[in-house]
Amino acid sequence: MHQRIYIQEVAPRDGLQIEARFVSTADKIALIDALSRTGVAKIEATSFTSPKAIPNLADAGEVMAGMTRHKHVDYVALVPNERGAERALAAGADELNLVMSASDSHGLANLRMTPWQSLERFPAILDLARGRNVFINASISTAFGCPFDGEVPASRVIDIIERLTAMGIRGISLCDTTGMANPAQVRTLCKEVLGRWPELMLTLHVHNTRGMGLANVLAAWQAGVSRFDAALGGLGGCPFAPGASGNVCTEDLVHMFEEMGVDTGVDLDALLAVSRTLPDLVGHDVPGQVVKAGRSSRRYPLPESVRAR
Amino acid sequence: MHQRIYIQEVAPRDGLQIEARFVSTADKIALIDALSRTGVAKIEATSFTSPKAIPNLADAGEVMAGMTRHKHVDYVALVPNERGAERALAAGADELNLVMSASDSHGLANLRMTPWQSLERFPAILDLARGRNVFINASISTAFGCPFDGEVPASRVIDIIERLTAMGIRGISLCDTTGMANPAQVRTLCKEVLGRWPELMLTLHVHNTRGMGLANVLAAWQAGVSRFDAALGGLGGCPFAPGASGNVCTEDLVHMFEEMGVDTGVDLDALLAVSRTLPDLVGHDVPGQVVKAGRSSRRYPLPESVRAR
């Protein structure tokens, strides 16, 4: 089990895309800039999708142009197609996060493509990126189950990874888009993937829809995974996946690992300070728990009855 | 790792004790009766404490007298002292759950006794129970940390268990009273305890204060623990432990294990049906997530855009 893990903060993309209200470009930039100073390894800054599909992220280019890049942070852009890839490359993304689904119905609902159609489109995106200093990651949505199709066999996910790695892709994210995964399933799939592709940069992306977020993260870590997506405050959700709710919460994940003695590279106090700004930013309470309860090391004053003894 | 786990439902005690409003005796009885039909192994029905200290459970005797006992369920009463034990025995409890703290300050705040004073009092309670067909469990609060004193060394908990087992006590609950435990700590302590006392009926009791509830349960299960306390809806908290919030949620815990293929003995649908009555019972929303999201196996209809293809 790795004693150092790496966090990709996805709140600016996965978090803000689903919010009821548009977060201003200036506020998005301020959020990314604040996150850049917390020690996270990567920030998924935005998504170069159709503004019609995801109006909240219509300002993707302005956000990437306005943010201040920190040398220790990789800035990632989600891209669903060639047009998105061109825009993300023009914006200077350090990494393109290609997205596809493991299940037919979610693929069709989210991207209007089956997994096999997505795989046919990816080489054209890779061609656009060739010769540029940009890392390519592929996110496999509904890798642990689909809200429409139900169970997604591990063999299908393995088959998809086989094809992705054959294209030269070295980064894969297994995404539990609607929080259907359980720890036994996460452990089995992650072990199988890392067993077959030990050099793969494998990331786990989970949602906390059914309360298993941190348990699934723990199971993946035990299976050898050291890269995790998480969203500040537990924001997040997929507009094209009914029942989706927030991502696993970054500060709660960082807190758990730090308490376990595992280095996350993140300054938890700095992260909590940014988290405290979220309710004002999005206009509602957010699910994160450590920001409310304080760290496990928090001490309370003795009650009067004890002090008086 | 055990393929069958046993659930003690603690909402009627740990859940209702902290609620702002008094739940009527009839409603408590109805809750216990409904829980009795779900397949949980034990129900902590009430606490025989001073009505001044815990006014919400002042009707402990009436509750125990009014509920309908199910032959497959053990009905447990929490008892802080001899007076409580006498009342619990008179009420026909199947099990007395003696309570003490691992830390001095929480012991003084909650029970007006240090751990060592509690240990001196226990033999008198055991004398009362001798010759009766009643199981004795001892719950060790703040076993993973104290909100006043901070870190609680594992050696102190081991020392306490040594003394409890020397008295003939065969059931011990390790309680993370204010959700300070992390999975590495839970694994280490549970492994040590089960290594030393393989025959011990060891129960893990965790609160989800910092989001680690199910991760801690998973870690304990991996360490060989098969008995878990949990509260329906994630109710719960200790009035004498600042920062305490809800117990790990029973239906979320059952759902996780059932999804993992581990038998809980519980009918999850029946449990979810009882959980749906909670907001009306306590007058507010509760933290449980599966009751809102549905099981992982929940399916949604295909969106029109996909159906129209």
From TrEMBL, chains A, B:
User: Per UniProt, what is one GO molecular function of this protein?
Assistant: metal ion binding
Q: Write out the entry's keywords from A to Z.
A: Lyase, Metal-binding
Entry-linked InterPro entries? Aldolase_TIM (IPR013785), HMGL (IPR043594), PYR_CT (IPR000891)
Q: Does the keyword Ribosomal protein apply?
A: no
A Pfam family in this protein?
HMGL-like
Q: Which GO terms describe its biological process?
A: ketone body biosynthetic process; L-leucine catabolic process
Gene3D superfamilies (UniProt xref): Aldolase class I (3.20.20.70)
**Where does the Pyruvate carboxyltransferase domain start and stop, copy by copy?**
5-272
Name the source's superkingdom. Bacteria
Q: What PANTHER family does the database record attribute to this sequence?
A: HYDROXYMETHYLGLUTARYL-COA LYASE
Family to which the UniProt record says this protein belongs: Belongs to the HMG-CoA lyase family.
Mind telling me what this protein is named?
Answer: Hydroxymethylglutaryl-CoA lyase
